[in-house]
From TrEMBL:
Keyword terms: Coiled coil
Annotated source species: Cohnella thailandensis
Composition bias type Basic and acidic residues, residue spans: 319-332
Coiled coil spans: 156-186
Biased composition (Acidic residues): 334-343
Entry protein name: Uncharacterized protein
Top-rank taxon, per record: Bacteria
Region of interest (Disordered), ranges: 318-353
């Protein structure tokens, strides 16, 4: 019994182990099946992902070779993107010939390659240009620009600052001198107004009034005074003769009356009349003194007019003083700039740049010398004091004249005015002589003031001669460039080429939603002063642009180098032949693509005029920097400015002749480097290139030259493919457990399916 129980117990234990083993084995098989499918799915996913990425790259590998060769740009070309993509996917699919075991039975059920980001987009085009130029442009800049222009930048910048100060001073100087000229004119007019009425009645020099003259026609003050005693004597004599006749006649009449009363016959004849002996002389004298008196009375009205002129003179002097104060401020600012530069240590050493070092020394001396042009308050106070003294002298003269006129008015019938006439006459003559000698046309006070003004104006005539000469030669240099306009006679087909280019440009702007409302002006100023100012201002701009490029303004630098390297620009020697009438101006944009990109005119002549005008302006600014050094020997700051301007104009004109003859220009007298036309294009592109309009013009030229539409030249591909493989074990269980979600795909029947996407671009 005991054995049977033990046997049954062992059987039960063996049965339990078998069931457990079966359950464990089933779980192991299930786990291994899932792991195998998981491994197959993982391998499938990796292969599918790599296939999609490879397909995307394969699509991009079909680029337009001509576009790359000519412009260094990548864009899709060749076969259809979908076909290339699918072909690559199928090429990466494992194949089986039926005799070998295939772990992955990949099947591609859907695929698509979506192209985007066309080259017409400025953002896309700019990135490709930057990629193309990122190694070349810095080398070009270092070798061809910075090494050539080193030492010139600071000199030209300082020249601009110095010329600005000198020009400010010159303009203020001209205003001040115009005010002083007005003051001198008013002072002279005031003196003339008072002197003119006296010219005919008060002689100069003074005549002695001691003595007498025979009474006759009195035309001057000395006549009035010196003839007065004789006039009194003759008038008295005639009056006595008249009185004697009157007494004799009255006695005869009395005798006649008495005879008649006595009844006696009266036969005595009446006394004969005795006519006056000096009636004519007396009459002429009296008429003469009235005329002299009338002239003297005129002086009061002249005095009021004179004072009005003197008031205007004082106002002009005050205006000149205010301008002189402005000049003092300009001079102080110039001195402060020099001191700030010295304190900051900005000055170059001779080792760094001989040009910059010499320029700084010359400019500092110039800025200090402009202080000498300031006259100072004391000078103007003296001038105003002279005007006041002239007014007071005029008042004294007028008072003496009025007093004398009153006395002269009492002469007819008088007898005791000789002493008064002599006294007042001497006083009037003295006042008149003092006024004439001090404030008349050749008066010492006026002449002294004029001489003092002319003394510091001693260089004005020479300066104006230099300015006129520089202006004439500037106009001649301008006319040579402006004459390009006369050669713009495009053939109909050339006009159509420009019209097509303009349409492509407008279309690209619109496609990029960019506007063309910004203002671009590249006209050269006709007046030399304005042209010089603009040239120096522009030079500051392109020098700053070059400096910015050197320290990291990457986009504009790369873009400018790309334009110069990939697009055609005009040949200066060909332009010289055009100007000489030996060749016709090619009206097509194909020979001046860089100029069109930079300036955007739809005429060949306009683009050339803009480019060569800017070159002339650049040369004028550099030569102006030299001219300030070369002309320092003139001493007077404004004369230095005029001489430097003439030097700059002549040298810049010679530079243009050299450019047109050989396409070379010496950078500077102080920097032994040769520059070319393309160097200046680089500078101008750095200065005002890189705008949306410039990229649009660049695109328009490339479209016209290649015949391609950049709106359909794609640079970005997004590839997408859907593939599946068979699940060997328990596909239903996988779907039920939801494991496909974690695997990144879905289970459809017995197949696991997943979709992959890869994006790639040329830049």
């Amino acid at each position: 019994m005991r054995r049977r129980k033990k046997s049954r117990k062992r059987k039960r234990e063996r049965g339990s182990v078998s069931i457990f083993f079966i359950a464990a084995a089933a779980g192991f098989v299930l786990l291994n099946g899932l792991l195998i499918d998981y491994a197959r799915v993982a391998a499938f996913r990796k292969q599918a992902e790599l296939s999609v990425m490879s397909g995307t790259r394969s699509v991009l590998s079909a680029y337009d070779p001509e576009l790359y060769e000519k412009y260094g740009l990548f864009a899709r070309g060749g076969d259809s993107a979908d076909e290339l993509f699918l072909r690559t996917l199928e090429g990466n699919q494992p194949t089986s010939d039926g005799q070998t075991f295939s772990l992955l039975d990949v099947k591609w059920t859907a695929s698509a390659a979506i192209e985007s980001r066309p080259l017409a987009s400025h953002e896309v085009l700019r990135r490709q240009v930057l990629e193309e130029m990122k190694y070349k442009a810095p080398i070009d800049l270092t070798i061809e620009l910075i090494s050539r222009w080193r030492g010139v930048a600071d000199a030209v910048k300082e020249a601009g600052s110095t010329v600005d100060r000198l020009e400010e001073m010159r303009q203020a100087y001209e205003r001040r001198e115009a005010s002083l000229d007005e003051a001198l004119e008013m002072v002279s007019e005031a003196g003339k107004l008072l002197v003119e009425p006296l010219e005919t009645v008060i002689p100069s020099p003074v005549v002695s009034l001691n003595g007498q003259r025979s009474a006759a026609k009195a035309s001057t003050l000395p006549d009035v005074v010196l003839m007065y005693p004789d006039y009194v004597a003759k008038r008295t004599s005639d009056e006595n003769r008249a009185a004697a006749y009157s007494a004799a006649y009255q006695a005869w009449a009395e005798r006649a009356r008495q005879a008649e009363a006595a009844g006696d016959k009266f036969t005595e004849p009446p006394p004969a009349p005795t006519p006056p002996l000096y009636d004519k002389e007396i009459s002429e004298y009296v008429d003469g003194i009235q005329q002299v008196r009338s002239q003297l009375l005129r002086l009061e009205g002249a005095r009021k007019q004179s004072e009005s002129r003197l008031e205007r003179a004082a106002q002009a002097i005050e205006a000149a003083r205010r301008t002189d104060e402005e000049m003092r401020r300009i001079a102080e600012e110039g001195s402060a700039e020099t001191e700030d530069a010295e304190n900051a240590g900005d000055a170059l050493s001779p080792e760094e740049s001989s040009f910059g070092y010499e320029a700084n020394l010359a400019y500092e001396e110039l800025r200090r010398s402009i202080q000498e042009l300031v006259l100072g308050d004391e000078w103007f106070e003296e001038f105003l004091g002279e005007v006041d003294r002239q007014r007071q002298a005029g008042e004294r003269l007028s008072q003496a004249s009025l007093q004398m006129a009153g006395t002269i008015g009492g002469i007819p019938g008088s007898t005791g005015l000789s002493a008064q006439l002599v006294s007042e006459g001497d006083q009037l003559q003295s006042q008149a002589e003092l006024y004439r000698s001090g404030f008349g046309e050749s008066g010492s006070v006026v002449m002294n003031r004029r001489e003092r003004i002319e003394e510091y104006r001693s260089t004005d005539q020479e300066r104006r001669t230099l300015e006129e000469q520089a202006d004439r030669e500037w106009r001649q240099a301008e006319e040579s460039i402006l004459s390009l306009a006369g050669h713009d006679e495009a053939e109909p087909e050339d006009s159509k080429t420009f019209e097509q280019l303009e349409r492509l440009y407008r279309s690209n702007l619109a496609w990029n939603s960019a506007s063309d409302d910004s203002t671009e002006t590249y006209e050269q100023a006709s007046e030399l002063g304005s042209a010089r100012e603009e040239a120096l201002e522009q030079s500051s701009g392109w020098l700053s642009a070059m400096s910015d490029a050197a320290v990291g303004a990457r986009d504009r630098l790369y873009g400018s180098e790309y334009v110069v390297g990939r697009f055609v620009h005009s040949d200066p020697t060909e332009v010289r032949e055009i100007l000489a009438g030996q060749a016709e101006l090619p009206a097509s944009p194909t020979f001046q693509q860089a100029e069109y990109i930079l300036y955007g005119f739809s005429k060949a002549s306009s683009n050339l005029m803009a480019a060569y005008s800017e070159v002339l302006a650049a040369r004028l600014s550099i030569r102006m920097a030299e001219g300030l050094i070369e002309s320092a020997r003139y001493g007077h700051p404004l004369l230095v400015l005029a001489a430097a301007t003439l030097y700059a104009v002549r040298a810049a004109a010679q530079d243009m002749r050299s450019l047109l003859a050989t396409d070379t220009i010496p950078l500077s007298k102080y920097v032994a480097v040769t520059t070319t036309y393309s160097d200046y294009l680089r500078l101008f592109l750095l200065m005002h290139g890189g705008s949306e309009k410039h990229w649009a013009r660049m695109t328009a030229i490339m479209e016209q030259e290649s015949g391609l539409s950049f709106e359909r030249l794609y640079t970005y591909v997004s590839g997408q493919g859907t593939a599946s493989i068979t699940l060997w074990f328990f596909p239903g269980l996988v779907k039920t457990l939801g494991l496909s979600g974690r695997w990144g795909g879905t289970v459809n029947g017995e197949r696991y399916e997943a979709t992959y996407q890869a994006d790639d671009a040329y830049q």
